């Protein structure tokens, strides 16, 4: 990994990847174990676990997946389910002794899922907090601006630290809501980066971690090379180039990809800066212009 200050949460144990979905469909624990080992060997410091809807219908398979992975790797797991019942299964099965004593991550808690905080009664864990939504007048509302995401983060953090659990800022990871560039007419990518900056500048949040799903950025964009390197990878690196110096220190990503900070003269970084400065259809036209270069 070319960015030493960036910790990777391996994303591949997820049915969003076709090859992984086949492993789940076939209950192929051996193949899932191989995928876990491959990610750990490539430098992942956590492994994200999401087996899709089967987690609700087949809790025994969920247990088998956790047992199987913990039998072959000694890094902690991140349980990626917005469901209390599934998280209970995961936390009751997870053995920190098989992860060098390290707690798992629960992904994720937000103001609309505040009851998930009670899961801390099962065992300690680190928490991914969603900055992308808030509760307003009893209703969940999507955050679309950096001030909204920053204020929501501050409010959630204060509530968790005062809830009586043994939790510190070091146990909290803010998801900075990395969106999809190909359909971003509302400036959400720019807002994500501005949120990183606001959190980094806030003395009350010093020590909190920041992360996001990096592969979201290039979804639905065609494959192409510019200056001899894959366009999608360079776009992801462009986000990291702007975010990592401002405290973005964790990422949900594929650990064997060549993540690096781009030099100022990098062509794709220049395109990326131009795109995120725009809004509406102007941003989409600028994306198309990048592909015509």
What can you tell me about this protein's structure?
- By secondary structure, this protein is an alpha/beta fold.
- It has one domain: TIM Barrel.
- 39% of the residues lie in helices and 16% in strands.
- It contains ten helices and twelve strands.
- Strands 9-8-5-4-3-2-1-12 form an eight-stranded parallel β-sheet, with helices on one face. Strands 6-7 form a two-stranded antiparallel ribbon. A two-stranded antiparallel sheet has the order 10-11.
- Helix 2 crosses helix 4 and helix 4 packs parallel to helix 5 (84-93).
- The model has no long low-confidence stretch (mean pLDDT 96).
Secondary-structure map with pairings?
Elements: E1 7-13, H1 18-25, H2 29-41, E2 46-49, H3 54-57, H4 59-70, E3 77-80, H5 84-93, E4 105-109, E5 126-130, E6 133-136, E7 139-142, H6 146-161, E8 172-175, H7 188-201, E9 209-211, E10 225-226, E11 229-230, H8 231-243, E12 250-253, H9 267-276, H10 280-292
Parallel strand pairs: 1-2, 1-12, 2-3, 3-4, 4-5, 5-8, 8-9
Antiparallel strand pairs: 6-7, 10-11
Number of spatially distinct domains: 1
The residue ranges in which pLDDT falls below 50 over 5 or more consecutive positions are: none
Q: Treating each run of at least 4 consecutive H or I residues as one helix, how many helices? A: 10
Given helix and strand content, the structural type is alpha/beta
Strand order of the largest sheet: 9-8-5-4-3-2-1-12
Overall 3D shape: globular
CATH architecture: Alpha-Beta Barrel
Assigned CATH superfamily: Dihydropteroate synthase-like
Encode the helix/strand succession as letters.
EHHEHHEHEEEEHEHEEEHEHH
Give the strand content: 15-25%
Q: Separation of termini? A: 29 Å
User: Radius of gyration from the CA trace?
Assistant: 19 Å
